[in-house]
Each structure stands twice: as structure tokens, then as C-alpha cells.
């Protein structure tokens, strides 16, 4: 008989078709985009509640595709993570941020830059060597580069993650736990991680001025962070009254559209010169 085995029918829904097509488009174009220098880093300031001034910026990548224009990271970071391209992409962001920090330092603008890293980048220790290299190449004071990592990157291999975090901090970088509150780490886990700060996810910050439950939650988180000696950074601050609430509960740094959008380096330079608390 010609027919052997059972026939399998795979039915693709329009949504699956769209996803497959998108994956294939990224597969053809993202690596090329990275090699052809189409990625761009934007910088969004964080404001210190203590000084009222910008103390740091977060590096946020975008892709300026000739075909589609400016593409936000949400549309290509997970592909990069799945395909392994996050390695070279993450290194490129780190190198770009280091060059920018050195340039600003030469201009007398001392501002730390925080770089996002994916769980994938934490499983081997290349990020530690990468940091050491970019600091050396750009003759940067070590404490000018920080890292933001998510809770999920700590779950997979806790001991490994702790070791890498310890080595990054030994090189002078701060390590911040990003999107705090959206994962599942317990207080006990949190107490074991050698962190500098937790970054409250914007879903908690959104409308906190009006929501008693979120207010109690943020107060409790700030108290826990104080006990563990972590600083607290709030992201996604969009309104004056959210800002006032965060000042009152003792958050250390704030970031959000209320202060500034992510900006190109020249835009940030102009912004920081005219920003008054
Ligand atoms: P994230 O690290 O949680 O970054 C915060 C996101 O919120 C950014 O989106 C930022 O532009 C946006 N945002 C800032 N202020 C406000 C606000 O007041 N309101 C609202 N609604 N949103 C605000 P963006 O730039 O699109 O980045 C999205 C995510 O992509 C980031 O989330 C981060 O997880 C990832 N990402 C960006 N750049 C990199 C990178 O270089 N490496 C890696 N691994 N991930 C990156
Ligand atoms: Ca972040
Ligand atoms: Ca977030
Ligand atoms: Ca505090």
C-alpha cells in the first residue's frame, strides 16, 4: 500500500498563520537589521525623589526597519530570545550604552545607564565578561552601567543567577529587579538575592492615586524593600497625583511619561539641560 500511517491534518487558524509569517519575517530580517546597524537605543530618564534630578537613564532598544519604520521592542525581543539572537543583540545594546555613557561623561554629564537583560543572557556568564570589556574599552567608571532583569530570570537557576549578579556587582554595576510584582518571587527568595533595587511594575503604579488597595500594596512593598535595604524605583508614572503619592510613600526614583518619553541621545541632552523639578 502506498499509504502508510495515519494522515495528520494541521489546521492553521488565521492567528497562527499571522504568527508564523511574522516569525519568518523576523528570521529573515532581524539579524540583517542588527548587522546593518538598524537598531537604535533610546534613553528614558529616572528622577531621584531625593534630589529631584535625573540620576539615571534606561536604555530601550528600537528597530528602525527600512521596510516598516520604527518597530517597538515588544515586537522583536521575544523572537530574539527564542532564536538566540538576544546574545549579539544584547551585547550591541550594552556596547552602545557604554559608548554613550563615555561620551556623556566626557561632556561633563554624569549619568548612569541601565541596560535590560533577558533571562537567556544570565544563564552563561558571558554578560560578566562583556561588562568588563565595555568598561575597559570605553575607560568608563564601573558604576556608570546598571542592569535591569526580570524575576523569571531568577527562577530557572537561582544559584547561577545569584553568582552572575554577584559578579556584575563586584564590577560596580547595580542590579535591579524589573517588573517587580508581576512574577512570583517570595519575600524569602527576595531576601536571598543580592539586589540594589526593585522596580515596581507600571501596572501597580497606574491609577495608584485613586486605588486604596494598590496604595496599601505599594506601602507594604516599600516597607519590605526598606527592611531588605533595596531601593524602590517606580515605572510608568503618568500623572501628577500618582507622582505625589509615590513621593509620600518614600519611593526613591521615578520614571514615566510625566517626566519624559524614551529619547534619542541629542533629545535627552536638550531635555536634561532644561529639566527643572
Ligand atoms: P520594560 O523594561 O518594563 O520597560 C518599560 C516600558 O514602559 C518601555 O517600553 C517604556 O517606553 C514604557 N514606558 C515608560 N514610561 C511609561 C509610562 O509612563 N506609561 C506607559 N504606559 N509606558 C511607559 P518599551 O521601550 O516599548 O520596551 C518594552 C520592553 O521591551 C521593556 O519593558 C523590556 O522588557 C524590553 N526591552 C527594551 N529594550 C530591551 C533591551 O535592550 N534588551 C532586552 N532584553 N529587553 C528590552
Ligand atoms: Ca526595564
Ligand atoms: Ca515593566
Ligand atoms: Ca526609601
UniProtKB/TrEMBL annotation:
Coiled coil: none annotated. Residues 23-276 form the EAL domain. This is cyclic-guanylate-specific phosphodiesterase. It comes from Chania multitudinisentens RB-25.
Amino acid at each position: 500500500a502506498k499509504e502508510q500511517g495515519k494522515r495528520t491534518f494541521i489546521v492553521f487558524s488565521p492567528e497562527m498563520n499571522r504568527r508564523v509569517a511574522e516569525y519568518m519575517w523576523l528570521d529573515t530580517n532581524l539579524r540583517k537589521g542588527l548587522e546593518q546597524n538598524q537598531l537604535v537605543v533610546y534613553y528614558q530618564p529616572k528622577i531621584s525623589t531625593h534630589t529631584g534630578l535625573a540620576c539615571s537613564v534606561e536604555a530601550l532598544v528600537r528597530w528602525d526597519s527600512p521596510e516598516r519604520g520604527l518597530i517597538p521592542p515588544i515586537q522583536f525581543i521575544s523572537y530574539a530570545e527564542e532564536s538566540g539572537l538576544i546574545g549579539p543583540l544584547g551585547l550591541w545594546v550594552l556596547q552602545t550604552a557604554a559608548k554613550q555613557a563615555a561620551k556623556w561623561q566626557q561632556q561633563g554629564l554624569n549619568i548612569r545607564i541601565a541596560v535590560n537583560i533577558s533571562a537567556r543572557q544570565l544563564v552563561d556568564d558571558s554578560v560578566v565578561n562583556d561588562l568588563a570589556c565595555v568598561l575597559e574599552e570605553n575607560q568608563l567608571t564601573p558604576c556608570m552601567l546598571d542592569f535591569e532583569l526580570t524575576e523569571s530570570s531568577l527562577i530557572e537557576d537561582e544559584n547561577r543567577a545569584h553568582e552572575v549578579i554577584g559578579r556584575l556587582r563586584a564590577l560596580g554595576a547595580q542590579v535591579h529587579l524589573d517588573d517587580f510584582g508581576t512574577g512570583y518571587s517570595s519575600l524569602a527568595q527576595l531576601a536571598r538575592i543580592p539586589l540594589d533595587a526593585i522596580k515596581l511594575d507600571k501596572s501597580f503604579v497606574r491609577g495608584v492615586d485613586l486605588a486604596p488597595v494598590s496604595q496599601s500594596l505599594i506601602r507594604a512593598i516599600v516597607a519590605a524593600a526598606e527592611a531588605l535595604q533595596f531601593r524602590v524605583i517606580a515605572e510608568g508614572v503618568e500623572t501628577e497625583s500618582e507622582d505625589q503619592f509615590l513621593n509620600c510613600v518614600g519611593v526613591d526614583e521615578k520614571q514615566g511619561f510625566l517626566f519624559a518619553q524614551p529619547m534619542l541621545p541629542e533629545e535627552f541632552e536638550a531635555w536634561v539641560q532644561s529639566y527643572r523639578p
